[in-house]
Structures are given as structure tokens and as C-alpha cells.
Amino acid sequence: MSKLFAKISPWADLAGRFLMAFIFMTTGYGKIGGFEGTQGFMESMGVPGELLPLVIITELGGGLLLMLGLFTRYTALALAGFTILAGYIFHGGSEDMMQQIMLAKNMAIAGGFLVLVANGAGKFSLDRRFGRS
Q: For residue 132, what pLDDT is reported?
């Protein structure tokens, strides 16, 4: 069994990075199209709307870096913090079950990022290619 896992591990690393990046790439892109609405929602939750460009850059840039496997550990650490913070700001403290599920989703994503912090991007990454595994 360990030989099987050794063979699929590089591909699992790559797929995992792409799947984790996907949510950030799509939501970051979506925020561009719905800029004013997203800004208003942020402000209604007590977050300055002026931070939205930084949020978009974080989501799109972080997602792209994850896909490429470039600066993966630093990116994953930053996105873990971003995801935990966003989870508590936008979903925390609510009695609504859906909001509790969304908070749990954010915590699970942050957990995945911490695995990347611990293990790096894997074989199919620019970090590995440039000797930064």
C-alpha cells in the first residue's frame, strides 16, 4: 500500500493545491464583478470597504501562487490566517446553522493550508523546481 501512496502522492499534492486555490480564485474573481455589492456587505459586517482591493489581490494572488506551487508555505500560512479571520468576522457568533457550517468550512480550509505549511507544495511545484521544497 505504501508504494501506491508514494506513486499518487505527487499528484495528490498537485490536485489538493488546485482544489484549495479554486475557491479563492473563483471568489476573488467574483468580487471584481460584484465590487459594490461586496463592498456594501463588508461594511455591513463592520469591515472597511476600502479593504476590498486587498481582499481581491489576496484571493487571486494567493490562489495563483498555490496553483503554481510558488512560495507555497508562506502563501498557505497567510491564507490560513486570512481564512480564519474571515470565517470569524463573516460567519462567527451566529445561531444560524448555515453560518456555523460556513465557519466550519473555513476552519477546515485553514487546516488544509496548515498541512501545506508543514509539508510544502510537493514534487510538481515551482518551489521544488527552484530548490525551495
A: 78
CB 130 within 8 A of CB 69: no
* Span 89-110, pLDDT tens digits: 999 998 999 999 999 999 999 9
- What is the SS3 assignment for the chain? CHHHHHHHHHHHHHHHHHHHHHHHHHHHHHHHHCHHHHHHHHHHCCCCHHHHHHHHHHHHHHHHHHHHCCCHHHHHHHHHHHHHHHHHHHHCCCCCHHHHHHHHHHHHHHHHHHHHHHHCCCCCCHHHHCCCC
Q: What pLDDT was estimated at residue 65?
A: 98
Residue 48 is placed in which grid cell? 472597511
Is the four-CA dihedral 47, 49, 51, 52 of positive or negative sign? positive
pTM of the model: 0.93
| Strands annotated E in 4-97 | none
Contacts of residue 3, defined as CB under 8 A and 6 or more positions apart, other chains included, come to: none
